[in-house]
Amino acid sequence: MNKIGFIGLGNMGSSILRAITKTDEKISIGIFDTDQDKMNSLKVELSSTLITINSYNSFEDLIKESYIVMICVKPQILSKIYCKIKDSSSPNNLFISIAAGVKTSTLSKELNTTRIVRFMPNLAAKCKKSVTAICSCEETNETDRQQAFEIAKTFGSAFFLDEDKFSAFIGISGSAIAFVFEFAHALALGGTHEGIAYNTALDIAFETMESAKSLYDEEKENPISLMSKVCSAGGTTIEGIKTLSDNNFSSAVINSVVNTSKKSKELEKR
């Protein structure tokens, strides 16, 4: 039997698979994808003395031979295969879904089980730096929740949230990666304007973000307190902060999160 079986090996599914194989324990993993070449390539790449990768010609067979089933397909595909998943499953299966916008209540109803956990990872799963939101059915037992949490931690950090907070999570994490890139790009353009080559300025901007994160981790103070330590009276930093304030920087960011969350809720209703 496989400890974990993967249905779907797209960008996110394959990223999670790669992260899970970076383990010191012996583990058997099942994989299925309609792209046979991709599936076989991953099998060759990731198999090792500790990692046994078993490929399957059907996801039904994979489910029957796996304890934990990772559903890593798009929602429009998932909606067409619910019955086949349900008919192939048993009470032994724990299902973890990363299908965007598909609620645990829908999964539970369609698969006829309460052993359901939902992940919302972000793009950084491919470099084991995802920030992942987790929720489950109310009836899901703590052992299942903890197993899912440990899996999520293999490809980054993880946070349990109520499912109705997932739209807000998209605003501050899933989509916010793009906001961070936008900010870094703007910093780099400013640096370029002042004479630093763009690529160098971009590297400096991202390293500065890492510095800020490390400082926060070390001090555990709120951002206002940390900003005050950088701002000296009449100095350069307060001048920059004033310029951001004059241009409604905080309001723009807040509104970006609010509108992203709103859009997510609208899409879930479709």
What percent of residues are in strands? 15-25%
The CATH architecture of the largest domain comes to: 3-Layer(aba) Sandwich
Trace the largest sheet across and list its strands: 3-2-1-4-5-6-7-8
Which homologous superfamily in CATH is the superfamily of the largest domain? NAD(P)-binding Rossmann-like Domain
Helix content: 55-70%
Count helical runs.
Answer: 12
Biggest beta-sheet profile: 8 strands, mixed
What's the number of structural domains?
2
Overall pLDDT confidence: 95
Distance between the termini: 38 Å
Runs with pLDDT <50, length 5+? none
Number of strands: 8
Principal-axis shape equals: elongated
Q: What is the class of the largest domain in the CATH system?
A: Alpha Beta
Order of helices and strands: EHEHEHEHEHEEHEHHHHHH
Give Rg in angstroms: 22 Å
CATH topology of the largest domain: Rossmann fold
What structural category do the secondary elements indicate?
alpha/beta
